[in-house]
DNA sequence: ATGAAACATGAATCAGTATTCATGTTTATT
DNA sequence: AATAAACATGAATACTGATTCATGTTTCAT
């Protein structure tokens, strides 16, 4: 475990790591069922019974792999964070110009959100179920974002301005548009959303 | 109703409207206690017992004024919506220039959020507890926002661009900065946040 | 002043559901 | 093929907490 290669937080030990292929598969099935069920019903309405029956295992099996209901939830939030950051990093890593990277990153984020609406809602709910995971999720983002903006400013690719506040504002834009897709089911195609947002981010709205 | 003047939604009948001054006071006490308790602990952790004891009344008294736990929650979300819209409308109504109005509105919003952190968290949680109230909250905002942007565009006060998407993006910025205050407890003074955000909104970040 | 409507009480009900556990079954190693 | 460790089961436990209700108390119109 602790996956050399990525090196994520080494703190808390998971309930139980599977030691055979069968166990591995069962754990994954439960995690994936939890994503769907919690994403759809919310944390409180989603019972262990719902999750295990969706996963096709007995109720007690859940506790072989997770200590508590909250633990599986936290794991989902962490996974969401890793996936999103990875997706965005992939989409932007070869782009030198910051403004172009901004556009590509936003687009990749929105595609991801549309493909994983459950994970999106789970992160929202983390504010109440697991506040620390929630803060970590956004703080990890903000760290990278701010660093990118500072570098771009130093390189003269963007104008001067407080990188931290800008990072939060830009994340807010992405989040709001993601919510359009997942919660409000807008008809607008992602490229249109990205185009409008990009124009706002690059040029502002002054005449 | 699309809000002529005040005229809020007349649809659903509340559990029970008080008919005496005493009842009025008790109902208000419960509602206010609910705001504090639910805001602090979240919907699920906040029990009726917590709320009534915070309000200084017996448990059964709750059900004289509210049919269910969910009903008091929904009422809080509605109240939050009314208050925020009212606050922003007040702060911007005498400002002709759209960009200036944007700045004043954002500032008023952030001050409000700082003064009512509980209400802010309650709206977030509505996505799971009462999704319809959540959508109404943001849709009501968006309606006004979009109309304002369209008018400003027609008047040549801002550049051309899709008003709906812009409205969502700008709301996203406000929301993200509000979260900075309430969830992440930033040290930055509100005027600094507003200044950075305003520069972004007006001019963008291109060099 | 008085009776009916409003309001208030808090103990009892009732249901849901997270978690545990005693008991089997499967897998991997020898 | 035998055995210990892993894995799986689902019924039983244990507890929480929303809602109800039978019984007072207060308010107010007459």
Please, could you describe this protein's structure?
- The structure is a homodimer of 207-residue chains.
- Chain A has 207 residues and is mainly alpha-helical.
- Chain A folds into two domains: 21-67, Orthogonal Bundle (Arc Repressor Mutant, subunit A), CATH 1.10.10.60; 72-203, Orthogonal Bundle (Tetracycline Repressor, domain 2).
- Chain A has nine helices and no strands.
- Chain A has helices at 21-41, 48-55, 62-65, 69-92, 98-115, 117-129, 131-154, 163-182, 190-203.
- In chain A, α4 packs parallel to α7 (131-154) and α6 (117-129) packs across α7.
- The longest helix of chain A is centred in the middle third of the chain and has 24 residues, at 69-92.
- The radius of gyration of chain A is 19 Å and the shape is elongated.
- The model of chain A is unreliable at 1-11 (pLDDT under 50).
- Chains A and B meet through α6, α7, α8 and α9 of A and α6, α7, α8 and α9 of B.
Structural features:
homodimer, 207 residues, mainly alpha, Arc Repressor Mutant, subunit A, Tetracycline Repressor, domain 2, 2 domains, 9 helices, elongated, disordered N terminus, DNA-binding
The quaternary organization reads as: homodimer
The chain-level mean pLDDT of chain A equals 92
Q: Name the largest protein-protein interface in this structure.
A: A-B, 52 and 52 residues
Strand content of chain A: under 5%
Sheet/helix structural class of chain A: mainly alpha
The helix content of chain A, as a percent range, equals over 70%
Largest sheet of chain A: none
């Amino acid at each position: 475990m602790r996956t050399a290669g990525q090196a994520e937080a080494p703190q808390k030990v998971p309930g139980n790591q599977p030691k055979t292929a069968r166990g591995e598969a069962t754990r994954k099935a439960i995690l994936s069922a939890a994503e769907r069920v919690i994403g759809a019903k919310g944390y409180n309405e989603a019972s262990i019974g719902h999750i295990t029956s969706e996963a096709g295992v007995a109720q007690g099996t859940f506790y072989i792999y997770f200590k508590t209901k909250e633990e599986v939830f936290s794991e989902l939030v962490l996974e969401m964070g890793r996936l999103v950051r990875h997706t965005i990093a992939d989409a932007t890593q070869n782009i030198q110009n910051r403004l172009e990277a901004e556009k590509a990153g936003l687009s990749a984020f929105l595609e991801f959100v549309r493909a994983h609406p459950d994970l999106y809602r789970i992160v929202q709910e983390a504010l109440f179920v697991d506040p620390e995971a929630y803060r970590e999720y956004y703080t990890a983002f903000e760290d990278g974002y701010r660093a990118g903006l500072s570098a771009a400013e130093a390189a003269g690719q963007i104008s001067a301005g407080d990188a931290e506040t800008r990072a939060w504002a830009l994340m807010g834009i992405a989040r709001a548009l993601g919510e359009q897709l997942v919660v409000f089911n807008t008809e607008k195609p992602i490229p249109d959303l990205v185009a409008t947002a990009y124009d706002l981010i690059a040029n502002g709205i002054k005449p």
